[in-house]
Amino acid sequence: MSSIVENLEQVMRQMRLAEQQSNRKPGSVKLLAVSKKHPSSAIREAFSAGQLAFGENYVQEALAKQQEVQDLPLEWHLIGPLQSNKAKEVAQQFDWLHTLDRLKLAEKLSQHRPAEVPPLNVLLQVNISQDPAKAGILPEEITSLAQQVAQLPGLQLRGLMTILALDLSPEQQRADYMKMQQHLTQLQAILPDCDTLSMGMSDDLPQAIAAGSTMVRIGTAIFGTRGI
Predict the structure, then answer these.
(1) DSSP 8-state code for residue 137
(2) Which residue has better confidence, 55 or 228?
(3) Residue 153's pLDDT is what?
(4) Is 135 helix (H, G, I), strand (E, B) or coil?
(5) Under 8 Å CB-to-CB from 214, ≥6 apart: which residues?
(6) Which alpha helices (H) appear in the chain, and where do they start and end?
(7) Which of 69, 80, 150, 176 holds its CA 20 to 30 A away from the CA of 124?
(8) Cα–chain-centroid distance for residue 80?
(9) Do residues 198 and 161 make contact, with C-beta atoms less than 8 angstroms apart?
(10) Domains of the chain
(11) Which pLDDT belongs to residue 1?
């Protein structure tokens, strides 16, 4: 058994335990394997263990890997910042975008999403810690942007995403994550189809799940630190 397969099993055990401890339904949290800076062979190993959803930060790196594993039925998520000049490629080649933070970008994605494929699932990135080093909209901007994005053809607004500030205590992490859960609940009151809260990584998975995360983004704990 490869280390990636073993690591995946360990992460899944951690997720199921966190769900149990938080009185969450078993399997209610989805695992997104963050494969950035790791070769396509690592993606194949993870797929052999049943992992289908993969997150990438860089468009060109992701497109190259997609070609290398095009025989596999994978779900591709862009979780890094997206420049407008890459919007067409993402609209055509990805299933999810986690980092939507402005209407003009949403309009470009909508324009370029092929009509014959399902809508592109998008999440609004929220700078919940209000960290100047992090991207994302402020909490008070969520409702306005969400309502505008929800009107665009070719896009399906699924919810919210955040990346916390560094060096927060577990208590601070939990508090910020709880705020995100509250914002999703408020958003669902006007857009009931929003069902996703993308938050939590290798070092704060339990806090994120306890606060209501529905999708955790795990890279190092699965693939290790060695990248391409």
Answers:
(1) B
(2) 55
(3) 98
(4) coil
(5) 28, 29, 30, 159, 195, 196, 197, 198
(6) 3-21, 40-48, 59-68, 87-93, 103-112, 142-149, 170-190, 205-210, 220-223
(7) 69
(8) 9
(9) yes
(10) 3-21+28-223 (3.20.20.10)
(11) 63
Q: Map tokens 């095009």 to a residue.
A: 70
Question: How far does Cα 61 stand from its chain's mean position?
Answer: 17
pLDDT at 228: 56
The CA angle 183-76-216, to the nearest 5 degrees, is 40
99, 78 contact by CB (below 8 A): yes
Cβ atoms 164, 201 nearer than 8 A: no
Fill in the DSSP letter of residue 71.
T
CA distance 201 to 150: 27
What length is written for the chain?
Answer: 228
Instruction: For residue 91, count other CB atoms closer than 10 A to its CB.
Output: 20
Tokens linked to 61: 């790196």
